[in-house]
Design brief:
0% strand; 13 helices; mainly alpha; Rhopdopsin 7-helix transmembrane proteins; elongated
């Protein structure tokens, strides 16, 4: 990140640089240029775990939106933009760690390793932090608006947070580009001169202040995203399984806040340490975890949608009951699989649909079954004279004045 330039870098000259370390080693430590210890393994392991998870969650979300819900909203377009950008930034971070001088202690790297390519990689990565972080926050804010957009105060809070974070992250990228850009040309010496400026590499420079403020705003925005939907989440009246899913989303948001807090701490430590290459590794690790959680949290409701699609029977509005789709499950997991007809007999309540037994069956088996909404057969009248007369119906008043209260309680004569 931008804090990787927290100290003054060596200026390249026309002659080849001798074996001089980027930074002087601490007391009692000897520089090891031939076989330095690689420190970027945690970054590679974290990225190797998070990238497949991001791809899996994204596949589930796309399947749920296109195949099950068949609805594509604005938040889905935002996610499709932010997901490739975040994956590209994580991949770019891996390439930075695998390239010297990053991933090694500054006193174990020869000053000649800091060439134009390394300086350009660090500059591009630092400038891209602002837009990528804002796209991530935009995705999360759109998810909140999609779920609780009907709540006016929450909707206004989401818009305020979205605009505020967008302005600050864009301003940060501009500050990095101005303070650390190459001077005066685009050759190696110009890039190193840009990093050597006090505004870029000094612990009290503009770049350092903006970098720490970036960590503070990033942490504050994550806490803000976690807090504003909590009143609406608490007031939800949903089943226990859905409550567990909501609880998992809240825990993931809390973990994202912890990653932001650790990132702020490591960012401050990196500006205070002369080992500007080695202190970046913990910062890269928590940054990869934060980006990954920011992409996986909006996909968690789609996991529940897919789960319900494959396990819960679908009852449509035409009163037809379908069996649960068990294609995604192994036949060994359920030793006794019911057929469609068996499932309908055991799970379909006869009280839910109108039913009438045939008159012939009722005559053969006149036993009354309380589960059946059966009507007894109505015999035809052979002697209409034997039918008792129907009770008299009160006459309807001809006018409003002739309507009296007693007529409402008039009893019929037999």
């Amino acid at each position: 990140m931008s804090s990787s330039t927290s100290s003054v870098l060596p200026v390249a000259t026309g002659d080849a640089l001798m074996e001089v370390p980027l930074r002087a080693p601490p007391l009692g430590v000897v520089s090891n240029f031939s076989n330095p210890s690689f420190m970027g393994t945690p970054v590679l392991v974290t990225a190797g775990i998070c990238l497949p998870l991001i791809l899996a969650f994204t596949a589930v979300r796309i399947y749920a939106k296109l195949a099950i819900l068949k609805k594509w909203k604005l938040e889905d377009y935002v996610y499709c933009i932010s997901c490739p950008v975040v994956i590209a930034l994580i991949s770019f971070e891996i390439s930075i760690v695998l390239t010297k001088p990053n991933g090694y202690h500054a006193w174990d790297v020869n000053s000649s390793a800091m060439d134009k390519s390394s300086a350009l990689h660090l500059l591009v990565f630092s400038i891209s932090l602002g837009p990528v972080l804002w796209l991530l926050k935009l995705t999360l804010f759109c998810s909140i608006l999609s779920a609780f957009g009907s709540v006016r105060w929450l909707k206004n809070c989401a818009y305020i947070g979205l605009i505020t974070t967008g302005l600050f992250f864009m301003a940060y990228s501009i500050i990095v580009a101005v303070s650390c850009g190459p001077r005066p040309s685009t050759d190696t010496e110009s890039y190193l001169n840009g990093f050597n400026r006090g505004q870029c590499s000094s612990a009290t420079g503009v770049n350092a202040i903006a970098s720490i403020l970036l960590g503070i705003v990033n942490l504050a925005s994550d806490v803000y995203l976690l807090i504003i939907p909590l009143p609406s989440v608490i007031s939800l009246n949903i089943p226990l399984k859905q409550k567990i899913g909501v609880f998992a989303i809240v825990c993931s948001g809390l973990t994202m806040c912890v990653c932001s807090l650790l990132g702020l701490i490591y960012r401050i430590m990196s500006w205070r340490s002369p080992d500007f290459t080695g202190t970046q590794i913990p910062l890269y690790v928590v940054f990869v975890a934060e980006l990954s959680l920011g992409l996986m949290i909006p996909c968690m409701p789609s996991l529940f949608t897919v789960y319900r699609h494959f396990t819960v029977p679908d009852i449509n509005d035409t009163a037809t009951i379908a069996t649960p789709n068990m294609r995604g499950f192994s036949s060994l997991s359920s030793p006794k699989t019911e057929s469609r007809a068996t499932w309908r007999k055991t799970h379909l309540s006869i009280e839910e649909i109108p039913y009438r037994k045939p008159s012939s069956e009722w005559e053969r088996r006149p036993i009354h079954d309380h589960r059946m909404k059966a009507l007894p057969p109505t015999p035809l009248l052979l002697n209409p004279a034997s039918v008792p007369p129907s009770p008299k119906t009160p006459k309807t008043p001809a006018s409003f004045r002739s309507m009296h209260l007693p007529i409402m309680f008039q009893t019929t004569s037999k």
